[in-house]
Amino acid sequence: MIYLLSIILGLIQALTEFLPISSSAHLILARAWLDFGFADGLTFDVALHVGTLAAIVFHYRKDIDTLFRAWLRSFSRRDPGDVNQRLAWYILVACVPAGVVGVLWATWIEVVFRNPEVIVVTLTAGGILFLLVESRPVRTCVMEDMTLRRAIFVGAAQTLALVPGVSRSGITIAVGMMNGFTRKEAARFSFLMGAPLLAGAGAKKMYDLVGQPIVKDEIGLMLVGAITAALGGWVVIRLLLTMLDRFGLTIFAWYRFALALGVVAFLWFS
Fold this sequence. Notes:
mainly alpha
């Protein structure tokens, strides 16, 4: 049963990490409603994020390979006209704001904002933002049109995703669209930008675990959750790109409103 619960959390992570509906919010609510009593919450969350990182790497493996090679090439033969070199550095620069805020204030944010009441507010605010973004004119920019200013803007917005309920993919896709990018290209930049952050978060938590006793069962649970999140995440990325093309962010806005109402009802009656 405990491994089944680990698989359930892995599926929740896979469904909600890439869909702009906030994985952290759903994991917090799942634990509150279903009373998962195993593994440290934040540590297990990171294990699931490692799984979704694997999904990103697999789906965008060609982009990642091209950008990584270009980034390495920029040290020996810097070429301002090389689009891939610029994109590689823009992605890294865009990660800086969230990385800095995460290192300095992540623990405080987790303590203060990790509760259902905050999630109600952030889910609603995110839904309103999605509707406003979709009301703007048609967007035509592709990722190759990215500039340093746009990258910093999207990266700064990403810091808000440290608060549960905001959604990292949601806020970065929305801000990317605000900067004129198509839905698909905004999602592409969002996922590629998320890969270094997910890797960094996983590495930090692994470092924090050094010296701490971890029983064999906990390792097994984390692996099961991570593998489930990886396989499910790959499927969900493809699903999201199809849904964005057909429905835009509007369908996710209404889902966020419905979930926020559900949380209010749960808090009220409990």
